[in-house]
Amino acid sequence: MYLFCLLTVLTGGMLRMTESCKSHGITTTTTTSAGINTTTTTSAGINTTTTTSAGINTTTTTSAGINTTTTMSAGITTTTTMSPGIIITGGSPSSSVGVKVEVFNLHTKKTCQLPDLPGGGRYQHSHCGHLLCGGDYSSIWQSCLMLNPLTGNFTPTSVTLREKRSRHLCWDVEGENGPTLLMGGLISRRSTELVSSDGSSSSADFTLEYKT
To answer: Tens digit of pLDDT for each residue in 116-129?
Structure first.
């Protein structure tokens, strides 16, 4: 899943809530270790964590899947807001839509464009986690691209897939940063292979019972 980042730089101070201002139903925990002071506040499903270290205050608030981090240092406040989104890659016709990448924000219902896919357009490919593989042309059947979640750029990987993959399925078997399992497809309908998390190698896995 791709995360939106919105940076806002402001000047000014930070509002601190005193003990007398706290409402009922709010739980506050404060931990001090090696000069680092951490305060976590939970209220109505909203978690707020404030960390103070070497004169730098960092506050992270999580609510309804949206993470907001505020860092205050030398009178400058930097706020970073991250919300879940869906990344959409390629499509048909491949000469135009096939190279396009965009992110759909689940909260604002809007999209933003990311850099185009390298190496030409793709459709009928798979995209699980950071790994995009295969497609509908012989030149890309056995290749993969890797997404950099910090920049939104895709770059070619060194792997050559063991089978030609188009209209296949993929699965993050160990989560976002683990290997990706590729299954079936138009050409290799019962084979599966496991692509390493860095996109450098692929190994044959189990055989599917049915054509997929």
So the answer is: 999 989 999 999 99
209: left (phi over 0), alpha (psi -120 to 50) or beta: alpha
pTM greater than the 0.85 cutoff: no
Give 152's contacts (C-beta < 8 A, 6+ positions apart): 2, 101, 103, 114, 115
DSSP letters spanning 36-99 = EEEEEEEETTEEEEEEEETTEEEEEEEETTEEEEEEEETTEEEEEEE-BEEEEE--SSTTTGGG
At 16-25, the pLDDT tens digits run 222 333 333 4
Q: Which CATH number fits domain 85-204: 3.10.20.740, 2.60.200.30, 3.40.190.10, 2.120.10.80?
A: 2.120.10.80
